[in-house]
Write a structure and sequence with these properties.
Strand content: 5-15%
CATH topology of the largest domain: Rossmann fold
Distance between the termini: 45 Å
Number of domains: 4
Shape: elongated
Largest sheet: 7 strands, mixed
Radius of gyration: 32 Å
CATH class of the largest domain: Alpha Beta
Structural class: alpha/beta
Helix content: 55-70%
Number of helices: 38
Number of strands: 15
Length: about 800
């Protein structure tokens, strides 16, 4: 629902006398600001400025109406109180103001007025003075009160100039229809509504004319932190990997104070933060509408990017960040929650600074802070245990279908999307961005793609007009020129210079060079850029950036792929890009465009020196590259999976060592959960199912402790691709191997049994079987679970 319409309905529910009283009580200078907002809402193409206080020119506001031939300059004279013809002073005051408004200022031609307005707008502070000096052609008298018939006659009889008089009746009617915020603490409501409108347009799909709340589907989150003191509720949550719905997140944020939201590219981190902000803003708006105008504080959220945060020095700057005029910050405004997006999208060296600044600002305001980032290891490191960490998970089938229902234009399209979902859900992670791209493809009657890179490729082919010029962007250039333009821009101006946004002057310089080098018609270039922006690929403002980080990574990879024969030591460069961390998705898309990894590139990826925990994590995630390069040979896939799994145990021990060095006491099962989440993200794909099954069969046939550890990891990755019978048989094989290897220590047996219990949790009979083995083990070794999984209740508490 349109927010203005909603507020207008609320305003009409107030009796007319109450609305009149509210308007009459507003101080005159404050009323000037509300009138400016009213006129701008009524006529968005007019330029309005408050001029009161600039000089004694008689007019309080100025409206400039422009058409192709001339400009009409309207001076606004504002008065408060009732005006009666018998009260000489009141009428004379208005007459004097109107006469001064007509007599002062200099007449100017349209071109001169527009030139002065442009110059003044650039300087900001001079805008009021420029408007005040304009010679008016008409005068409006606005009275926040009543005006008698005799007073109207006197004004029109003594003034031989065009004037219009608007009284309290006119104000009540038009404020109600066009700017009802004035009745509910105008400045506060205006601030809230402008933020709501901005956040509704924040997501990538906004260019389709849809608000975020029109199609938002609540995601699911998973805690990345395990409580040290585990009670019954905690253990039950652990068995479900501590998943919880979006609705619970605000309460968790209030409880924890500092929260880090992690997720893959396109997983909906920005949208989740925007939705949280919208929900809080609507609560604040409702409080104002309920008549709580005299509340001492207005608690509102602030949503900004990490890049914007680096320029902020105080809480006051946070509130004025979106406002051209800091004076319009609502009185009593206080920050309820600080929401910072894109921590991973600033250079590594600035991430700790940004996180510290977010913490300091939030602490100074005694509010909570939420920071969102891609799931990169150095971001988790700089949080230094001060932030509770939660991961945003891919959609389940039900969530994906709910999104389709919101956006499908017909039942036929919904049926096609649902059928396509069944085919791709084990190949493509069901993140919002992937699903939104899929919807766009189905709208164009394209086939369902096989991989995430093909999904991006097919979508961008349509957006760039490769197939049908009537359905994508208008064909102003040949398709390959459009792709080449974006690839050169991404690689040369963003990737090579290690930045995610570029100043407009750098972009214009790039355009000048590009146009000359390729001999492109400059006249058509601006239309081309406008179409790219409308298609949701580029954002062309004072700073130029790609609408979504994934588009930037894709076109950077497209450049490298297109110039792969020219780049020296290409595979070494890809490995460097992958392990450096900031641009690793470029390596992912490069492999996806090539659709395969060959032996040489796989060798270099596996042979890379692993110095840090981040290096180990990226090696374990090599499976994502294999998913992108789904046409790789079976031998390369097997070698890649096997080589990546080699670092699973080093990650396990390294993480425990990091915890010990920081005096952070965690149950060791926490390190297992970290490994399992990485293994699932890396290998759980139909593209790798055959190789996972082969490696599991090979491992389980060996009779040693290392084989069991690897078998469990292979099984965890493959479990969602298996039938219930296959999964049960594999868990029983692991349990049998565990019983047959005498070298296992009791703590190791407890660890592996607990992991098998987790894998078999949906098979009640199998879970009970493993629970019995755990009971027997704890009966012989009562303290065996202390280092692994602290608990207070006896083991029978695990039974559900």
């Amino acid at each position: 629902m349109d927010q203005t319409i909603d507020l207008a309905g609320q305003a009409r529910s107030l009796v007319r006398s109450e609305r009149e009283k509210i308007l009459c009580e507003i101080p005159e200078t404050e009323l000037h600001g509300h009138l400016k907002s009213l006129f701008e809402k009524m006529q968005p193409d007019y330029t309005v400025e408050v001029t009161h206080g600039v000089a004694e020119y008689g007019k309080d506001l100025v409206i400039v109406k422009r058409d192709k031939f001339a400009a009409q300059v309207v001076g606004i004279v504002v008065k408060r109180g009732d005006i009666k013809g018998k009260t000489v002073g009141h009428v004379e005051d208005i007459l004097s103001s109107v006469e001064r408004a007509f007599k002062t200022g200099t007449p100017r031609e349209l071109a001169e007025i527009e030139s002065q307005m442009r110059q003044a707008a650039e300087l900001g502070a001079e805008l009021k003075a420029t408007f005040a000096e304009l010679r008016v052609t008409d005068v409006y008298v606005v009275i926040a009160g009543t005006i008698s018939v005799s007073a109207r006659k006197r004004l029109k009889g003594q003034l031989h100039v065009p004037i219009q008089v608007f009284d309290l009746t006119w104000l009540v009617d038009n404020f109600t229809d066009f700017y009802p915020q004035v009745f509910f603490d105008g400045r506060a409501q205006n601030y809230i509504q402008s933020e709501i409108e901005r956040l509704q347009r924040t997501p990538w799909m906004s260019q389709k004319g849809r608000n975020l709340t029109d199609y938002y589907v609540d995601p699911t989150f998973m805690s990345c932190d395990i409580p040290i003191d585990l009670n019954l509720d905690h253990l039950a949550a652990l068995a479900e990997l501590r998943r919880f719905p979006f609705q619970k997140l605000p309460d968790i944020i209030t409880q924890k104070g500092h929260v880090l939201i992690l997720g893959d590219p396109g997983s909906g981190k920005s949208a989740a933060l925007a939705k949280m902000a919208l929900d809080k803003l609507r609560v604040a708006s409702t409080q104002l509408r309920a008549g709580q105008r005299n509340a001492p504080e207005l608690r509102i959220p602030v949503f900004l990017t990490a890049r914007e945060l680096l320029s902020i020095r105080s809480a006051e700057e946070l509130l004025t960040l979106r406002l051209k005029d800091p004076r319009v910050v609502p009185e009593g405004a206080r920050i309820d929650c600080l929401l910072v997006d894109g921590l991973d999208e600033i250079p590594r060296k600035d991430r700790l600074t940004a996180l510290q600044r977010a913490t300091e600002l939030a602490d100074s305001q005694k509010c909570s802070v939420v920071v969102a980032s891609r799931r990169v290891s150095d971001v988790q490191a700089v949080s230094n245990g001060n932030y509770a960490r939660y991961e945003i998970l891919p959609f389940g089938t039900g969530q994906a279908i709910e999104l389709f229902k919101h956006l499908a234009s017909s039942s036929i399209m919904l049926e096609a999307l649902t059928e396509g979902l069944q085919r791709i859900q084990l190949q493509i992670p069901l993140f919002p961005l992937s699903l939104l791209l899929l919807i766009r493809l189905v709208e164009q009657e394209k086939e369902i793609p096989a991989s995430i890179t093909e999904l991006y490729t097919d979508f961008l082919d349509i957006a760039l007009g490769k197939f049908d010029p009537d359905k994508g962007i208008q064909v102003l250039f040949e398709y390959h020129m459009k792709e080449d333009f974006l690839a050169h821009l991404a690689y040369g101006e963003f990737f090579e210079k290690d930045r995610l946004a570029i100043p407009r002057e750098d972009f214009d310089s790039f355009l000048d060079t590009y146009v000359v080098d390729l001999d492109i018609n400059r006249e058509k270039l601006q239309d081309f850029l406008t179409d790219l922006e409308r298609a949701g690929i580029l954002d062309l403002k004072d700073e130029v950036e790609f609408k979504h980080r994934s588009f930037l990574d894709y076109f950077t990879a497209s450049y490298i792929y297109g110039h792969r024969e020219e780049i020296e030591h290409l595979h070494d460069r890809i490995v460097q890009i992958y392990y450096e961390g900031f641009w690793e998705e470029v390596a992912f898309f490069y492999v996806g465009l090539k659709m395969e990894l060959n032996d040489d590139l796989m060798s270099k990826l596996l042979q890379h020196e692993h110095v840090t925990l981040s290096d180990l994590v990226l090696r374990l995630l090599i499976g994502r590259l294999l998913q992108a390069g789904w046409k790789s040979t079976s031998s390369v896939k097997r070698r890649g999976i096997d080589g990546a799994i080699d670092v699973a145990e080093p990650i396990y021990t390294s993480f425990l060592e990091v915890c010990r060095k920081r005096d952070a006491v965690f149950p060791s099962i926490y390190s297992d959960f970290l490994m399992l989440s990485l293994v699932e993200a890396s290998f759980s794909s139909n593209f790798l199912k055959t190789q996972l099954a082969d490696l599991f069969a090979q491992c389980i046939s060996r009779n040693d402790d290392r084989a069991l550890s690897r078998s469990i990891l292979f099984l965890w990755a493959e479990q969602r691709l298996m039938t219930p019978g296959e999964l049960r048989g594999a868990v029983e094989q692991c349990s049998k191997l565990l019983s047959g290897v005498r070298a296992f220590l009791p703590a190791e047996r407890a660890r592996y049994l607990w992991l098998l219990k987790l894998i078999g949790r949906k098979d009640r009979e199998l879970e009970q079987l493993i629970t019995k083995k755990l009971k027997r083990l704890t009966k012989v070794h009562p303290d065996v679970m202390k280092g692994l999984l602290p608990y207070r209740q006896p083991l029978r508490s695990l039974k559900r």
